[in-house]
Amino acid sequence: MSLSIMAKEAREFPSVIAQQLDKNDEAISQLAGRLQQLNPNLIYIIGRGSSDHAGVFGKYLFETEMGIPVCSAALSIAGIFKRQLNLKGAVAFIISQSGRSPDILKQTESAKNGGAFTVAFVNDETSPLAELADAVIPLSAGEEKAVAATKSFLATLSALLHLCARWSENTSLFNALKAMPSQLEAVINAPSQLTKAHLENTRNTIVLGRGFGYAVGREVALKLKEVLGIHAEAFSSAEFIHGPVTLVEKKLKLISLNIEDESAPFHQNMVQDVRSRGGECIDLQGGVTSSHPRLDALLLMQRFYLDIEKIAVELGLNPDTPPGLNKVTKTQ
Question: By CB atoms within 10 Å of each CB, which of 55, 59, 196, 227 scores lowest?
């Protein structure tokens, strides 16, 4: 049976990250030196959709590894309200697959006018965003034809990790990234974790994670909506206990994203609480042991993308062209 475009693209990520690391290392090392000189007091993330979700991963990454505060841009501030922020002393990370969305470009211009040093994480190196930014980190994911982003999202996470490793001079993180392609291949060849039986006739679900698990949980929830048409919402497992846990009484299915890092025991305590209330919780993890805890989320997403593609096909859905969606979304 021939694979869908989504499945083919998701399976390309091991080679994408290997090529990306080789291609970008000199430029990222130079950029890291520039950032060390600038010594920014804030990282300002600009992105929408999957790119914004990658920014949440970046928030946990740079705050955990470097102690630099990270915030997400509200794109309407520049685009609709026409307000200029003071971003002196900040670096802006602009994340975009196409580099062509008008509101992303407008916010990038505003960030530069506000004094921020701008770094574009972009897949299309010929895009207006690549020309506009002060520095460019190519995602090098190649053309992505499926509407649902897979390899470009993962390539953004690996690029953020690469920059963090060089900027913080974290050799163990960089070496773990270099070893990652073989671990991703093992995940691709591992058994499915999420199956049709789990989600058939499911209309609503909750995705629970903590820390880096919550960061990718937002992307998991988006893909459940885009690819399978399931209404899904992501919560930090800690926040879920503060009120939304009453939804368990509605017999909703929950998906627990298990990351083996400092947050694991706290997340598991919350999930056990949910189960004790009668919640049905499906466990997802990377499936293989990573060489660094900051990489667990990428292994988990690699497996998840393949699993939901398979479920979509089995349900008679087309994972490549979800209804009502386009590859480039042009918002103002």
Answer: 196
Task: Please report whether residue 134 resides in a domain.
Answer: yes
Half-sphere exposure of 311 (CA within 13 A, CB side): 25
98, 124 Cβ separation under 8 angstroms: yes
Coil vs helix vs strand at 317: coil
Q: Residue 330: inside a domain, yes or no?
A: no
* Res 236: pLDDT: 92
Among residues 112, 150, 138, 185, which one has the least CA distance to residue 19? Answer: 138
| The one-letter amino acid at 143 | E
138 and 233, same domain (yes or no): no
Instruction: Give the residue ranges of the chain where pLDDT is below 50.
Output: 327
In a domain, 279, yes or no: yes
Residue burial 160-191, b: 16+ Cβ < 10 Å; e: rest: bbbbbbbbbebeebbebbbebbebbbbbbeee
Give residue 145's domain range: 5-178
Nearest 10 degrees: CA dihedral of 218, 244, 74, 54? -20
The structure tokens 């960030």 sit at: 111
Q: Are 268 and 289 contained in the same domain?
A: yes
Q: How far is 48 from 104, CA to CA, in rounded Å?
A: 8
Chain centroid to Cα 307, Å, comes to 17
Q: Strands (DSSP E) along 220-306, which ranges?
A: 231-236, 253-257, 280-284
19 lies in the same domain as 122: yes
